[in-house]
Amino acid sequence: MRQLPSLTALRVFEVAGKQLSFTMAAKQLYVTQGAVSRQIKQLEDYLGVPLFVRMHHKLELTDSGRQLLQKIEQSFDLIETAVTEIRDPKLRQKLNILVPPTLATRWLARRLTEFHKRFPELEVSVYDHPSEHVLFDCEIRFGRMAKPKHFSEMLFLEQHVPVCLPDMIDRAQNLTLEAGNLLHILHEGERLPVWRDWLEAAGLHQQVDADRGLSFSTLDQAISALKAGTGFAVIEKHMISRELEEGRLAQFSDIEVSGPYGYWLDIPPERQGLSKVVFFREWLHEQLA
């Protein structure tokens, strides 16, 4: 029976040895710096030799560390090649993403052409609702908090702007008379507080009744009503960027309100580190930069 240390410890050492930084290794592996330090310490205890020279704000490999890193890289390369040759190539190339329908339609879909050009080997499938028949690699989720037991990061907070048709801007200057034409979006059966928050920020909460107006179950419905001239809305500007750029909608006030909801990227623990997921996450950050 082979006498081997923990493969996890060997993998952590490989990353730390390449980076020469426990902090950078922790970021790459999506673990804490303390977890990296513990794995390295356990490996050194098992081997009975130090693998790093720890200096102030700097790491260097010992002779034993350099020798082990070279052998480990060769070994992991052989394992990766063997697994890649056996694994179903169609499964390996698929990237399944769960995305809220409005974000998928109004923001993500028109950007995926660029993603496909950069990563033509990946077959992307975008779903707008969970399915027991699909293994999702990651999810973009609308919410207020990180998702437990996942790598969960905020992509962007909602940035709400007040908008209407360009020829309705004069009416928008007297919202007291237009309270019945406020357009609201429902989330889990309740109106999102975007109008109340915006009126508060604009100093109009005493003059305009935020509880009046029409409600819609999706943002797309509210935007369609807005473009038809039904009323006035406070909308997340990423969702209407094209309409604002093309002049089909107009912002009738410079006052903007951030949050409290936003869009999160959630990656299950078992999908972290997969190259296709890493590529997608890095690409998302580029799009939002």
UniProtKB/TrEMBL annotation:
**A GO BP annotation:** DNA-templated transcription
Domain of life of the native organism: Bacteria
Keywords for this entry? Answer: DNA-binding, Transcription, Transcription regulation
Transcription: present as a keyword of the record? yes
Domain HTH lysR-type positions: 5-62
Q: What molecular functions are annotated in GO for this chain?
A: DNA-binding transcription factor activity; sequence-specific DNA binding
Pfam families associated with the record? HTH_1, LysR_substrate
Family assignment from sequence similarity? Belongs to the LysR transcriptional regulatory family.
Its name, as the record gives it, is DNA-binding transcriptional LysR family regulator
